[in-house]
Structure formats: C-alpha cells, structure tokens
Design goal:
- The chain is α/β, with parallel strands linked by helices and about 450 residues long.
- Helix 4 (about 90-100) runs antiparallel to helix 13, helix 5 (about 110-130) packs parallel to helix 13 (about 345-380) and helix 6 packs across helix 12 (about 310-315).
- It has helices at about 5-25, 40-45, 55-70, 90-100, 110-130, 140-155, 160-165, 180-190, 210-220, 245-255, 290-295, 310-315, 345-380, 405-415, 445-460, and strands spanning about 135-140, 170-175, 195-200, 225-230, 255-260, 285-290, 300-305, 385-390, 395-400, 425-430, 430-435.
- The protein has 15 helices and 11 strands.
Length: about 450
Amino acid sequence: MTPEIEQFRRAAHRALEWIVGYYQDPRRYLVRVPMKPGALADALPGEAPEEGESYEALLEDFERLIVPAATHWNHPRFFAWFPSSSSPPAVLGEMLAATLNTNGIHWLSSPAVVELEQVTLGWLRQWLGLPREFFGEILDTASVSSLHAMAAAREAADPEVRERGARPGLTLYCSEHAHSSIEKGALVLGIGRQHIRKIPVDGEFRMRADLLERAIEQDRAAGLRPFCIVATAGTTSTSSVDPLEATARIAEGHGLWLHVDAAYAGAAAILPEKRPLFEGWERAHSIVLNAHKWLFTPLDLSVLYTRRPDVMRRTFSLVPEYLRTAEDPRAVHLMDYGLPLGRRFRALKFWFVLRRLGRRGITELLRSHIAWAQELAAWIDADRRFERVAPVPFSTVCFRLRGDNDANRRLLNRVNESGRFLLSHTELDGRYVLRIAIGNYHTRREDVQEAWELIRRTADEL
Ligand code: PLP
C-alpha cells in the first residue's frame, strides 16, 4: 500500500466512525444552529492552501466548522418543507459511486450506470403500479425533470421547434398551487408569463377541472395554442392532489401533454391504500417523483418517467461525431433523453436502498409517517386554540393558531429558534400557516409528539 492510500484508509475509518456516530445519536445535534450569514465564510481562509494538508486537519475542520453550519435535513426532528433524508444503505452506495466515478453519457461510457438506472427504475415503476411502457431516467431535481417534460411537451405540440424556434402562443396550464419550478421551467422555455395559466383550486386546494377546461377552450377560441397541462400529486403547500382522472380526460380530449408533478407524494403510490389518489396518472405523458424526498435516498435523485421516450429523444438527441458508438437496440444512450451529457452513478445508491429496505421496509416507513401525521392532525383538532387548515392525505400537516398572522409567525420563529425542531410555513388564502412534514428515515413517533408539546408550550407563552 502506498503511503497516500494508507493515510486514506485511516482517514476513511475515522470518517466512517463519524458517520456511525451521527446515525447512532442524531438528536445530540440541533437541527439548526443559529448563525449569522457569512459566519462560515469568514471562519475559512480566503485562499486555497498552497501545499496539501493532512486528512486529520480536514476532518477536524469538517466537525468543527462545517457540521455546525449545516442545517440537518437528516435529523429526526427536521419537519420543514418536504423531507429528504439519507438512509445508511444510500450512504454506502453514494460512497462507492464516488469511488468508481463512472459516467453514463452513453452505454459504452458506462454500461453499469445505464443498465442499473433502467433496472432500478423498472423496479420502482412496478411498485408504483405504472404500466411497462413508462421509460425512466434519473435527473438531479424535480425542477429539472419538469423542465425536461415541458420541453418534450413543446416538441410534441410543435415538431418544427428545433428548426424554426418556438412558435408564439403556446400556452401551459397548472394549478395556482403548482410548484414554482413549473413556472420557472416554462419561463426558461420561452413560454412567457402571459401564457402560463394558473387555474384556481377548490376548497381542498385541488385544481378545478371545470375551470381548466374552460381556460383551454377560451384560449383556443382566442387563437392561442394550449400544449401542456401540469397536474400536481402532492402540492408543496398542503400536499393536495389534483383530480388526475379528470385532468387526463381533458388532456386527451384536447390533445395536450399531461405532466404529473408527484415530487414528494409519488412515493406513497407504493402503498395500495393510497393508490386510488393517483388514479389517472398512468395516462400522463410524463411523471416526476423524487427518491430524494420520501424514498430515503440523499440528494440528488429525481425520477422522470415518460410514456413518450421517442418525443424525449426528438427533443434532446444531438450527437456529435466523438460521441457516436455502434448502434444496438438494447444499448440505451442516456444523453439522448436529456440536457446533461455527464451522468453520475446515482442509480447505485438507489439500488442499495431498494434492496436493503425492500418493498416491505419502505412500506412500513411510509405507513408510519402517514399514521403519525394522522395522529398529529387529531391532536391539533382536539386543541381549541389551533385549527387545521387542510386535509392530510399523506404525511404533511398544515395548521395555525386561531389568531392573527403575526402570532403564528412568532410561534414558528420561537419553535425554530430552539434549534430542537425545524418547521416551515406557507400562506393559504392570505393566512400564515405552519407546516409539519414527516418523512425522515430516523424520525420516531416521540419526535412528532415532542414537537407538538413544544408548539403547545410555546403557544402558552406567546
Ligand atoms: N415539485 C413539488 C411538488 C415540490 O414540492 C418541490 C419541492 O419541494 C419541487 C417540485 C422541486 O423539487 P426539486 O428541489 O427536486 O427541484
């Protein structure tokens, strides 16, 4: 063994011990340490070292400076935004993927990346109950996956777009509760704000199918070109699910591309009892769900499924001579299905998770999170000082103090300032609302219970 490799071995053992300690007792960390912007940057040298440093120095600084500045998304008491946690098998897979550093540009550049991606996404597709024709690829985030879906939708509606450039008047539909990544993606594609219709929602924050259809008809009559509907299964504020059957029927009736953004909630389709909420999504042209949200796999692992890989190829395939390889019908070239050329071996960590936890393990985790969210909802309903402001179809609970927005803002800030829990907020009908999203691999029922106790105590003190 060379001295360099020997030093690496010792440092790797130390890092592994740190990881094991982190997993054993994550609650000894605050979810978030209060700090001022710039504090970490100021504590670090302004210039990189001239000479290489020891692993010991690096690991010491990691523990001393970096860990306290991290918001611990992996913490069992992280309840903000949507969950995103890494399970131990995923960490192993990530470590090994970085060691191989193999790049799945096309099949020849790494058969392992290409074929394992197809196999793992095939497994997941079966668990989700989606038909065989759905082709899956891994991208970094749901924002980028949805951008790809919308680009394919534009290609389907306007096959000349590559030659001529975009036609004016292409119009996209989503609910007013769709994630901002939909509007952002449409802006990047040059659709223009004037041609993004945000359809109002019903009393449970679901897109109104009647208003969707009316908007499409009005736009057609006005000479515009409706091309894409984005439905959300698990909206960011309340986790509501748009009416997928009705939306699919409208998309089919008007010849539009249907993209379903199931970034967070899509994982719940693994559960037979939740599958009815997703009925109709099998008729979509594309679906995104993030394994890095509620499938215990660390960032980044967004899954984009499409029933129209041919359109995805028409949209994205552009092969310079140096990337040409012999054609073989079984050799998938991932560069043909998206914008990035280089693709890291994300499927490895996901394969480790799917195999280590199995469908049973994942099902148990998802069911626990949903059950604790239901319990929390019941506790909130039983306390007359609070009101719950949205149904709880999955593991996200929206509630508020019966009072003004300012009181709710103060309540959230006080709870978060404790550093023991991290919650987030949203606004619904002009009202400031607190959110607790449960879904971390290490969360236990007591974590949810203690969060609720702290919220109640803090409300007493306001
Ligand atoms: N779609 C929905 C419904 C989301 O809630 C989010 C983020 O929370 C996104 C998309 C964006 O996900 P990403 O961070 O992977 O781009």
